[in-house]
Specification:
The protein has 297 residues and is of the alpha+beta class. 31% of the residues lie in helices and 19% in strands.
Length: 297
C-alpha cells in the first residue's frame, strides 16, 4: 500500500486521451446544456448512448461494471462531466431484433497519487458506436478484483481519468486496482461534492481565489475542500493536517524537514484556509439553488 500522498493530492477535472495503435481514438465531447441538466436530475451513473439514439432525449442505458466492492481503498469523486465518443474499428451487422452490445469498459487505478489516478480501458470490438456519459461528482469505489497485468492490446482504447479522494484516512490504491461506479447510497451521501468542485472552478475562473506559488493550487483547493467538508476540520485541524502531511511527503522524498521549512509551510495555511472556506460557502449557495436550476445561456 502506498504511504505517501502528494500535499495537494490533485486527483479530477478532465479526461486526457491516449490512443493505443490500431484502435480508433475516442473523442472527448462537450455535453449540451440540456443533457447536463438532465444528468443533474437523474440518478448518478455511467451511461452508454448508442449513436442511433433518437433526438438526444434519452440518457441511455446505465452501464454496470462488475465486481465485489472493497472498502480497503478510498472512494473517489469525478470533477467534470464525462463525455466519450466511441467508434469501434469494426462494425458488425446486427441481426433484426437483436440488441447490440456496448463496448467493454474498465476503470483501473494507475498507482499515482495525483494526476491520472485512473485509466479507462475501452474494448470497442464489434460493439455499437455511441458515447459514454456521466455527470460530474460521480462516486467511484474499489472492487476486490485486480486488472490483468498484461498491457492492453492494440484493439483497446485507453483514456486517463483524474479524481479527488473522498476519504482522507486511506492511501491511494496501488496500480491495477479496479474501480466501478459506487452504489446509490454513496452517490447520495457525496452528492454535495459536485458543488464544491463547481464552486472552485467558478471562483478560479473569476479570479476570486488567492493562489500562492503552487502550480497545482486549484487542485489543492478542490481536494482539501472535499476533505474539510467531510472531516469537519476547523482552522487548527486543517493547519496541523496540512503541515503533517507535507512533512511526511518531504521525508518520504528524503528531503530535510527543518524549523524554517515548517514556518514557511504554516505561513501558507491562512490563505489556503480562506479559499477553502470561500469554496464551501459558495458550494452551499449552489446546492441550495436556484442558481443550480437557472436557465443556461
Amino acid at each position: 500500500m502506498m504511504t505517501c500522498r502528494q500535499t495537494g493530492l490533485p486527483i479530477i477535472a478532465a479526461l486526457a486521451i491516449t490512443l493505443v495503435t490500431h484502435a480508433e481514438a475516442p473523442q472527448q465531447i462537450t455535453l449540451p446544456p440540456e443533457l447536463v441538466d438532465s444528468l443533474d436530475l437523474a440518478s448518478p451513473a455511467l451511461r452508454y448512448v448508442p449513436r442511433e439514439a433518437c433526438c438526444g432525449a434519452e440518457l441511455g442505458a446505465i452501464y454496470e461494471i462488475p465486481g465485489r466492492s472493497t472498502d480497503r481503498y478510498p472512494l473517489f469523486v469525478t470533477g467534470s462531466h464525462i463525455g466519450i465518443q466511441v467508434s469501434p474499428a469494426v462494425q458488425q451487422p446486427v441481426s433484426p431484433g437483436a440488441i447490440p452490445s456496448p463496448p467493454s469498459l474498465r476503470l483501473v487505478a494507475t498507482g499515482a497519487a495525483g494526476g491520472d489516478v485512473f485509466r479507462i480501458e475501452i474494448l470497442a470490438g464489434a460493439a455499437i458506436a455511441g458515447r459514454f456519459i456521466a455527470s460530474d461528482g460521480l462516486v467511484l469505489e474499489a472492487v476486490s478484483d485486480r486488472a490483468p497485468s498484461s498491457t492492453p492490446d492494440a484493439q483497446t482504447i485507453v483514456t486517463g481519468l483524474e479524481g479527488f479522494s473522498a476519504e482522507f484516512s486511506k492511501d491511494p490504491p496501488p496500480a491495477g486496482t479496479m474501480y466501478r461506479v459506487a452504489p446509490a447510497r454513496q452517490q447520495e451521501r457525496l452528492k454535495s461534492m459536485r458543488y464544491l468542485l463547481r464552486a472552485a472552478d467558478g471562483l478560479s475562473s473569476t479570479r476570486r481565489l488567492r493562489p500562492d506559488r503552487d502550480p497545482e493550487y486549484l487542485n489543492f483547493i478542490k481536494q482539501w475542500s472535499i476533505w474539510t467538508r467531510l472531516e469537519q476540520w476547523d482552522l487548527r485541524e486543517f493547519g496541523d493536517t496540512f503541515t503533517n502531511l507535507t512533512r511526511k511527503n518531504l521525508e518520504s522524498a528524503k528531503q530535510s524537514w527543518t524549523r524554517d521549512v515548517e514556518q514557511r509551510v504554516r505561513a501558507l495555511v491562512p490563505g489556503r484556509w480562506g479559499d477553502v472556506q470561500t469554496v464551501l460557502t459558495t458550494a452551499d449557495v449552489l446546492a441550495a439553488g436556484p442558481l443550480m436550476n437557472a436557465p443556461r445561456k
